[in-house]
Specification:
Elements: H1 2-8, H2 23-32, E1 42-44, E2 54-56, E3 65-67, E4 69-83, E5 97-99, E6 104-107, E7 113-115, E8 134-143, E9 150-154, H3 156-170, E10 180-190, E11 196-207, H4 210-226
Parallel strand pairs: 1-9
Antiparallel strand pairs: 2-3, 4-5, 4-8, 4-10, 5-6, 6-7, 8-9, 10-11
């Protein structure tokens, strides 16, 4: 019995170098960034065409780095919607309407609040077979040895897999995302038309120690309170090759809100 318990016990990641924005660093950021806006986060791009390496910012904008995996603590995640009146061309132009929670959108010019669920631009078929409003899921990941989280904007092709991971591998195991170390990799898939695209794969690496989980929780609260209002811009939807919701290499979504996935994967947990 004891042997079975030991076999099923989840590993504690003791050697994860968790660094958070606190103490002297927090004070330095508050003083030096005063009047300059929020601390800029690096954004991760998912490649097109079934590529298996993420694109990460390098030391300068002209020389990005690549990584086949991202390992870290998911501090926060939330849906983000954006609508451009002119067809989105993949630049960094501000959207005409945006939502930080996928529920209420705000028009940039008038400040009018829109209900995302009933908005005609957020309905399937409003842009060919897709949506005129672009939907992604923004994920804040704290990597080892770096106190500034990465921002990964997941396209709809990956949402089902993130949902299943969080539901079955995190919540049903008694954890929250910020108490665990997660590895994110990419897998090549093809849609019904034979077009290749990249979708995210989530793996549970282990749990943080109680002490480190407490530090991560404090960082999670900071991100949730201060950075959920991070400006929505083209960079959230502009991947390296059009893996956005209606980009040239992305599969179309069905009316349930999920992309077509390979045969044999039909587990649908009621998790949002």
């Amino acid at each position: 019995m004891a042997e079975a318990k030991a076999k099923n016990e989840l590993a504690v990641v003791d050697n994860f170098d968790l660094q958070t924005i606190s103490g002297d660093l927090a004070q330095a950021i508050a003083e030096e960034m005063d009047g300059l806006g929020a601390l800029p986060f690096d954004r991760v791009k998912i490649p097109s065409g079934g590529g298996l390496a993420f694109e990460l910012p390098g030391e300068d904008d002209e020389n990005p780095e690549s990584a086949t995996e991202i390992v870290g603590v998911i501090l926060d995640h939330h849906p983000v919607n954006a609508y451009w009146r002119e067809k989105f061309a993949g630049g960094n132009e501000q959207p005409d309407c945006s939502s930080y929670d996928g529920k209420q959108g705000i028009e940039r010019e008038t400040g009018e609040i829109k209900d995302c669920a009933s908005c005609p631009y957020n309905q399937f078929g409003s842009d060919d077979k897709g949506k005129a409003c672009k939907n992604v899921h923004r994920v804040f990941i704290l990597r080892e040895g770096n106190p500034v989280p990465l921002v990964l904007s997941l396209p709809p092709t990956s949402l089902k897999y993130m949902r299943d991971y969080i539901a079955k591998r995190v919540i049903l195991k008694g954890f929250r995302c910020w108490q665990a170390v997660t590895k994110i990799t990419l897998k090549k898939e093809k849609n019904a038309a034979g077009i290749a695209y990249s979708r995210a794969v989530f793996t549970f690496v282990g749990k943080l120690s109680p002490e480190k989980a407490k530090e991560a929780e404090a960082m999670k609260d900071c991100v949730k309170q201060q950075y959920r209002q991070l400006d929505v811009e083209g960079a959230d939807y502009n991947t390296t090759g059009g893996n956005t919701q209606d980009g040239p290499t992305a599969p179309k979504a069905d009316e349930a809100g999920f992309m077509n996935v390979p045969d044999g994967i039909d587990e649908d947990l009621p998790f949002n």
